[in-house]
Design goal:
Elements lengths: L7 E9 L2 E9 L6 H14 L4 E8 L3
Antiparallel strand pairs: 1-2, 1-3
Length: 62
């Protein structure tokens, strides 16, 4: 399955060490609670050490 086939597409804003950035996440289920955000933050920190999520928005396609 290609990541773009996953039905829930989010833009995630973050900060790390005085820098700010954003990225995309494709999930198989919607964000439901803080535990889901923690999983995303763990994944983000693997490529951006020290990253802290500052916001997220679901991308809706029509």
């Amino acid at each position: 399955m290609d990541r773009t086939d996953l039905p829930h597409h989010y833009f995630v804003a973050f900060s790390a060490g005085g820098r700010r950035g954003n990225t995309e996440f494709f999930l198989d289920q919607p964000i439901r609670n803080l535990a889901d955000i923690n999983k995303i933050q763990d994944a983000l920190c693997r490529s951006v050490p020290g990253a802290v999520i500052t916001g997220w928005q679901r991308f809706e396609t029509t």
